[in-house]
């Protein structure tokens, strides 16, 4: 695709998303700089990351290790923070920690030793978010920890070296009103903050539901298609 056209397209989409975030903050009585935008670049090329960085995007997200590793390497000269937001296998955890600045999808203690080892090998602290499931228990393909598992998981992250527990992440379940799901998330988070007041990041909200997430306290929204366009169904 013509690079000038692509840059213009991304700039226009980014502007629209930034306006949505600002309007949602305003409607929620929150400061406009309260919410950070993470642009999810999965399926899109490193050249798009480069365009985004040129437009002031500071945070990008990826959900598959191989693709993320390659893209982060291609963009090593850019000043962007890499967020890993996808399902994570424990045998890949150390490798993900070799390029990710934030791992948002920590949902079981088994991932912690690998992440910690990767952080040590790199001599770089990794920010960690615990992914909490908003799905009903037993739902197929459920990702995320149960709310009542968060305390033990947080303790595992805190006692491992090289990891900094920063907060929670969640995805609204398919087929449920996101407002209801994020209201539930806000209650889970309030309880979590009672014992860990500094872990106050809340990553929630995507292209279709970021307004609901901001209303319910999101500090980070993860937006893909609204900025970069529709993803191909298969790569
Ligand atoms: C792909 C993805 C997003 C972005 O989704 P859009 O609907 O394209 O904004 C956000 N979070 C996670 C975990 C994702 O995998």
TrEMBL record:
Residues 13-232 form the Alanine racemase N-terminal domain. CDD domains: PLPDE_III_YBL036c_like (cd00635). The modification N6-(pyridoxal phosphate)lysine is found at residue 42. The keyword Ubl conjugation does not apply. Its cofactor is pyridoxal 5'-phosphate. The keyword Transmembrane does not apply. It holds the Pfam family Ala_racemase_N. It comes from the Bacteria. Signal peptide: none annotated. Keywords: Pyridoxal phosphate. One of its GO terms (molecular function) is pyridoxal phosphate binding. NCBIfam families: YggS family pyridoxal phosphate-dependent enzyme. Pyridoxal 5'-phosphate (PLP)-binding protein, which is involved in PLP homeostasis. Belongs to the pyridoxal phosphate-binding protein YggS/PROSC family. This is Pyridoxal phosphate homeostasis protein. It comes from Nocardioides gansuensis.
């Amino acid at each position: 695709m013509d690079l000038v056209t692509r840059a213009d397209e991304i700039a226009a989409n980014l502007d629209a998303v930034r306006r949505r975030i600002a309007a949602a903050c305003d409607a929620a009585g929150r400061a406009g700089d309260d919410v950070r935008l993470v642009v999810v670049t999965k399926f899109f090329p490193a050249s798009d990351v480069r365009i985004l960085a040129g437009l002031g995007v500071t945070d990008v997200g990826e959900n598959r290790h191989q693709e993320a590793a390659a893209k982060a390497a291609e963009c090593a000269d850019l000043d962007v923070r890499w967020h890993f937001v996808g399902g994570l296998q424990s045998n890949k955890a150390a490798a993900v920690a070799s390029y990710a600045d934030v791992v948002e999808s920590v949902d079981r203690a088994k991932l912690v030793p690998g992440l910690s080892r990767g952080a040590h090998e790199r001599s770089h602290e990794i920010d960690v978010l615990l992914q909490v499931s908003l799905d009903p228990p037993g739902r197929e393909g459920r990702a995320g920890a149960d709310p009542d598992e968060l305390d033990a998981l947080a303790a595992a992250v805190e006692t491992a070296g090289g990891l900094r527990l920063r907060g929670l992440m969640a995805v609204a379940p398919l087929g449920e009103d996101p407002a209801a799901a994020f209201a539930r998330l806000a209650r889970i988070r309030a309880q979590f903050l009672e014992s860990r007041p500094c872990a106050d990041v809340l990553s929630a909200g995507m292209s279709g539901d970021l307004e609901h997430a901001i209303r319910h306290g999101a500090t980070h929204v993860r937006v893909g298609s609204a900025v970069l366009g529709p993803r191909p169904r298969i790569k």
